[in-house]
Design goal:
mainly alpha, two-stranded antiparallel sheet
Length: 711
């Protein structure tokens, strides 16, 4: 459900008519408190950026409550307006009604993902039911819906432009999908379901974070570090020192810590211990266990879908996406799995041969895959991540991404120090167009910490929109978990992390280059299976030799990455793609299986998961990318019945990038078309229409199969 938006708050000073002195003092105190609340005051900061250093955790709850009160007033004003409902007094007023909630939410929920704390968690637990309730109050306000329906029914006579038609249609659909057509009894049931889901999602995310932070592989004997590169050893020593265990080495379940260990550590028992800790998060029968929560959310989503007239939750979600039906998603995923699984089985056989040739007498297990893949990669291509890593200094890779955007779209990035930051690791950039006009502000937050959830994502502290014809610039943030600099080396990336940086930068460009009027349609406000196109297409430039040589310079010598290594990277480009594709497809199919349940039932989460994975033929040497108990995309994020969207978008991006390859990597006409037809449009057009406007035809699956070596 979309949020509703209102103008920046100026706290209204009213006359307080009270009968007792104590009431007058209480009201005055409350009013003063609101006036001094950093989240409610007008932000007199550069470009209206959040004043993070002024915001206190105690500001959030009263700020949310005041924002909710103001939205209720705005909704009442729409409903009580006696003039005939039209676009301005109903749809535009609705768009504007929740902007204060949006502003506060953007700060709170973004920071709760990046710099969480026990205090922030308590705030989340208090405000989540409040926000869920107000969203339901709006969606199920019958008088408001009648106004919207009146505008919708009379749209042809209102002389609306295309964007106005789209925002009207989206709001109408949101209300229908939010329960506006239900009777009072079913609306009350839906409210209860929504509240329970919101509470359980909050608990799920907290449990995953707690489980991720709870495990430490502490090594005291240096011989157990055999095989590990010096960079991983030094990082583990630094982690130990930070945790008060100087002289030891600590490996965690954070990405920059676990995966170098899984790829390089000779100690098989420790690899097993670390990987099992990773895949059993949320499945340890402790207070952070997520099995019951997963089953509860799945059943609640069945209830919600059934209440709204859908067979299952996937049908409800996909009705609003490009795919439209679960059958179409399964058709695509099954086709790809049929192509990828035989390749993955061949890869498993090849890894078993490496084990056998080494004289070892054991069967390949899931905790062995990365280690022996790395060995085989070195044998076949004389290439491993540690050879490449010195050429991928974080700042150089970032500047390489900036350079690609400059060559494509003429935009520039200038670091600034006059904008408040929420953490010392964050860097901030002004982004300007070719004509020097300001496009937006970009925050970048690169390194892991215990207060930050794992993974990588793009978000916004404010999305682009227009107010009285003036473009309000977006405030976009990229958040990742790359290796921190050590005492002897800067942050050095693997090539996979290089692709991650380019991926999130593509999302950032989608937000920065947005140029729409209405907040609810801007930037990444597109169907879930389309939103990954701008991000994934950027990964293609990261793999182009011309681009790599512009930023891949040895951090010690300044030497540009040699052609010999680029040739090896090219030859290894399709290496291990069976595994990469299968572990992803397994997660996408698991997601679909959870959300195509048609009725509420008793669910044993692990048995359900095993049945799903067995049905798709997943081999035991490969673990699904996300097991159910830590699959945050679908239980704590916005990808329920939508995780397939990455591969759907991969078809789009492979086909779209083929146009750039044909016309030239930095062909201005092609880049301008992509910016105008995709990046700037947000959700103002049908997704397939936008793609066809750029490409000239609907997408083909062939470029993706060719790219991954699966034909």
């Amino acid at each position: 459900m979309k949020k509703f938006y209102g103008l920046v708050l100026i706290v209204a000073m009213g006359l307080w008519s009270c009968q007792q002195k104590t009431e007058i003092n209480d009201s005055t105190t409350q009013n003063d408190s609101l006036m001094n609340n950093s989240l409610l005051k007008e932000w007199n900061t550069p470009y209206g950026t959040p004043p993070f250093s002024e915001i206190k955790v105690t500001d959030y709850v009263p700020a949310f409550k005041e924002a909710i009160r103001q939205q209720e007033e705005a909704i009442n004003a729409i409903v009580s307006n006696t003039e005939p409902a039209n676009f301005d007094n109903t749809i535009l007023a609705l768009e504007n009604s929740g902007m204060l909630i949006e502003r506060i939410s953007n700060v709170f929920f973004n920071l709760s993902g990046a710099v969480n704390s026990d205090e922030m968690q308590k705030v989340a637990e208090e405000i989540t039911p409040l926000i869920t309730k107000v969203m339901d109050d709006v969606m199920m306000n019958q008088a408001l819906f009648e106004k919207i329906k009146a505008v919708h029914d009379n749209a042809t006579s209102l002389n609306l432009d295309d964007e106005q038609k789209k925002v009207l249609e989206e709001h109408y659909k949101d209300f229908v999908r939010g329960g506006a057509l239900l009777n009072a009894e079913d609306q009350e049931a839906l409210r209860k379901v929504n509240a329970e889901i919101a509470d359980l999602q909050l608990k799920f995310k907290k449990n995953v974070l707690d489980e991720t932070n709870a495990f430490q592989l502490v090594i005291e004997d240096k011989t157990e570090l055999a095989g590990l590169p010096e960079s991983a050893i030094e990082a583990a020593a630094m982690t130990a020192k930070e945790m008060g265990k100087e002289g030891q080495w600590i490996f965690t379940l954070q990405y920059p810590s676990i995966w170098p260990f899984m790829q390089n550590a000779d100690n098989r028992a420790l690899r097993e211990k670390l990987h099992k800790a990773y895949i059993n998060r949320g499945d340890n029968n402790n207070e952070s266990d997520n099995k019951t929560i997963v089953a509860q959310i799945a059943n609640l989503r069945v209830k919600k879908a059934n209440l709204l007239g859908f067979k299952n939750f996937a049908s409800y979600v996909l009705d609003n996406n490009m795919a439209k039906t679960p059958d179409k998603v399964y058709e695509l995923l099954d086709k790809l799995m049929a192509a990828a699984l035989p390749v993955a089985k061949n890869e498993a056989s090849a890894l078993q041969e490496v084990i056998d040739q080494s004289g070892e007498k054991f069967k390949l297990e899931h905790w062995d895959w990365w280690y022996y893949t790395n060995k085989l990669k070195q044998q076949k291509y004389a290439l491993d991540d540690e050879v490449l890593r010195p050429y991928f200094k974080l700042e150089n890779v970032r500047n390489g991404a900036f350079d690609v955007a400059n060559k494509l779209y003429g935009i520039t990035f200038t670091e600034v120090n006059n904008i408040d930051k929420y953490h010392e690791d964050v860097t901030v950039f002004e982004v300007k167009d070719a004509d020097g006009s300001l496009i937006g502000i970009l925050y970048q937050d690169w390194f892991p910490r215990t207060s930050k959830r794992s993974g990588a994502w793009m978000t916004a502290f404010r999305k682009e929109y227009k107010e009285d014809g003036k473009r309000i610039i977006p405030l976009i943030s990229m958040v990742c978990n790359f290796s921190k600099p050590t005492e002897t080396a800067p942050s050095l990336l693997t090539f996979e992390e290089v692709e991650t940086l380019f991926h999130e930068f593509g999302h950032a460009l989608h937000g920065l280059l947005a140029n729409t009027t209405y907040y609810s349609l801007t930037g990444t406000s597109v169907p879930r299976d389309f939103v990954e196109l701008p991000s994934q297409i950027m990964e293609n430039w990261a793999a182009e030799p011309e681009v790599i040589k512009s930023f891949a310079k040895h951090y010690q010598t300044g030497e540009v990455i040699p052609d010999e290594l680029l040739e090896k990277m090219d030859k290894a480009g399709k290496f291990n793609q069976g595994f990469v594709t299968v572990e992803y497809l397994a997660a996408a199919l698991l997601d679909m299986d959870w959300h195509t349940l048609n009725e509420v039932s008793e669910i044993n989460t692990n048995e359900f998961e095993k049945s799903s994975l067995d049905k798709m033929g997943l081999i035991p040497e490969i673990i699904v990318r996300y097991r159910s108990t830590y699959f945050s995309h679908i239980w704590g994020g916005g990808y329920s019945a939508g995780y397939y969207g990455y591969i759907w978008a991969a078809i789009l991006d492979s086909d779209a990038f083929a146009t750039f390859k044909m016309n030239g990597l930095f062909d201005k006409q092609t880049a301008t078309s992509f910016r105008e037809n995709i990046l700037s449009k947000g959700g103002t057009r049908d997704a397939m229409e936008m793609f066809v406007n750029f490409k000239g035809q609907e997408p083909s699956i062939e470029p993706l199969l060719e790219k991954r070596g699966l034909k």
